[in-house]
Design brief:
With 158 residues, the chain is α+β, with helices and mostly antiparallel strands. The protein contains three helices and seven strands; from the N terminus they run βββααββββα. The strands form three sheets. The chain has a three-stranded antiparallel β-sheet. The chain has a two-stranded antiparallel ribbon with strand order 1-2. It has a two-stranded antiparallel ribbon with strand order 4-7. A hairpin with a 2-residue loop joins β5 and β6. α2 runs antiparallel to α3.
Length: 158
């Protein structure tokens, strides 16, 4: 994380040790809230703000996927996007993988936001998750991205 420097990636400042813990604590940029909290707690969000969140997320993903050794986030959800002054930033790289042999473990991550095909690897995993995230951000309806969706949502609710 220390080498990830982009406007749409949460800044990593370092590690510290806590008294009663064997695990170090991450010191990262402090942001106001998750995008999920913003979507849940705000009744009306203008389309321009929703699109700004999605554009910021795309920019962060483009940065990760275009690194010399690409990085797949693996759990792109509204809870893993932080916001400050209406700028979305990607965080929580716990399930991230470096793409070395084009094989990524799919044993973890938010299942609602993962493609149904086991063979989906690489940046395609994040692209699928971004599609699910887009539906959530645009419609402010959670978990609309299922492989057997029996109803259709309007593309944009505003």
């Amino acid at each position: 994380m220390a080498g990830l420097i982009d406007l749409h990636i949460v800044k990593f400042h370092g590690l510290c040790s806590l008294e009663n813990s064997e695990m170090p604590a991450l010191i990262m940029e402090r942001l106001e809230m998750t995008v999920d909290d913003f979507l849940v707690n705000t009744y009306y969000i203008p389309l321009s703000v929703k699109l700004s969140i999605l554009i910021d997320t795309c920019s962060g993903l483009q940065y990760l996927h275009n690194k010399m050794t690409p990085i797949v986030h693996g759990e792109l959800t509204a809870k893993n996007l932080l916001s400050s002054s209406l700028t979305a930033k990607i965080t929580d790289f716990g399930y991230s993988r470096l793409i070395q042999d084009k094989v990524i473990s799919r044993s973890r991550g938010a299942l609602v936001y993962l493609p149904s095909k086991e063979e989906e690897n690489g940046p395609a995993v994040d692209v699928f998750s971004f599609g699910c995230l887009s539906l959530y951000v645009l419609n402010q309806v959670r978990n609309v991205c299922y492989k057997s969706m029996k109803f259709q949502l309007p593309l944009i609710s505003n």
